[in-house]
């Protein structure tokens, strides 16, 4: 498994995303993903599936330290005491003593960021997470969060795929030695039928989806967490380290992106970088 090094964290470059998986299938799919070679799992408080993810991890028979485990806290629990309680609850549900990475899922519109970052640092200092980071933070918010945090922030988990341009955010994260963890890396399945990605894939004996994932992980400091409920696709999404895209192929894929290619937005989302 290839890794991304981010300010002290060593993160497997492909992880198994668990958002919106059928609840009765989370445990067996996690077990399957680990069985075919994944060593990075991503879940969240909001997904409502942490207990099943933890059960899949235990059922895999892998040592706890063999798997990089990420979860996220929802902004409703960003006040100091609420965040500390939410961190305890994450560990209880997952059935682990600590996670490898704990993220703030979205920026809060109400709780001061300084209070939340201080509490996140306290969770790390208590040994409940090895690393901390954020999700859905813009360049402005990244600067503020890094300034406020005593411990390194190791990633910003954001939407990123060939249709969404993220060059400004990537430059900012690299400036702070942070990684970018790409959610929706397959643009909710849209990349599978893309003719440009398909033509590039044909030259390598790979699918359009594998090309999209390869494009992501071939960029400096980028991690991808594809999700699928199809066992064959779960395995295929990991098979992206046995080929490389040329500079021309990378450029052709970058040219597909636009700041307007965003698929995920919620009420109260930050003002995105353009």
Description of the structure:
The chain has a single domain (3-254), classed as NADP-dependent oxidoreductase domain (TIM Barrel, Alpha-Beta Barrel). Helix 2 packs parallel to helix 3 (80-94) and helix 7 packs across helix 8. Helices cover 37% and strands 17% of the residues. The protein starts with a strand and ends in a 20-residue tail after the last helix. The chain has ten helices and ten strands. The protein has helices spanning 26-35, 50-59, 80-94, 113-125, 139-148, 167-175, 195-204, 208-217, 231-236, 247-254, and strands at residues 3-6, 9-12, 16-17, 40-42, 68-73, 99-104, 129-135, 153-159, 179-183, 222-224. The strands form two sheets. An eight-stranded parallel sheet has the order 3-4-5-6-7-8-9-10. Strands 1-2 form a two-stranded antiparallel ribbon. The mean pLDDT is 97. With 274 residues, it is an alpha/beta fold. The protein is globular.
